[in-house]
Amino acid sequence: FVYPSLQNIAYKAPHPNAAKLLIHYLHGNEKAELGIEPWYMLGNWPARQDIQVPHVHPVLGEMLWPLEDIVFWEMDPVGLWELQDEVQDWWILNAN
Questions:
Q1: Can you tell me the distance from the alpha carbon of 1 to that of 54, in angstroms, rounded to the nearest whole number?
Q2: What is the DSSP track for 18-45?
Q3: What pLDDT does 2 receive?
């Protein structure tokens, strides 16, 4: 399942350059270090395609699967927004 994860800088932020530094840190580096390290685990693939360190599974070993070789379901944020009321109404009626 692929879904977007965004980092934003608030309009008129008091320290926009500090926010840019934080975003840069969170994107990590090509060794999957810095802020991206806690999320660089099996089942998560960052948008960065230049990371050189493969995932290591405790049983299967290194997992060298490039993103373009994996079939994902892509989340449709607009579709979710449009259906959320209908799903919530169904859930309320049927959650007994």
A1: 20
A2: HHHHHHHHHT--TTS-GGGGGG-STT--
A3: 66
